[in-house]
Amino acid sequence: MGLRSWISESEKMKPAKKKVVRVWSELLQAYLWVVDTDQDSHSLMSQGVSEAICTHDEIDKLKDLSKDSLKAINKVKEAFPESTIEEINKLDNK
Q: Residue 79, CB half-sphere, CA atoms under 13 Å: how many?
C-alpha cells in the first residue's frame, strides 16, 4: 500500500497565521507535526506536544531516505524534541 498519511488541524495549536499540520504516518506508525519554522516547533513544544516535529525544509531533506532511516530519525526527533535535521549524508556501502 505504501506510505499513507492524512492531515488534520490540531486543536492543541493556538490560531496562527502559519499552517501547522499533524500527520499520521503508516510507515512510522506514529503522528508527527509539520511546521514552517523552528519558532513554530518551539511553540508546539511549549504547548505540551511530545510527538516528533519537523519543518518543511527537514521533510524535503528526508524524501529519498529508506524506511529504516526514516524510522531512526523519527525516534531521535521524539527522544530529543529540540533536535533539527541539518544535513543528510548517505554512506557508500561498498
A: 6
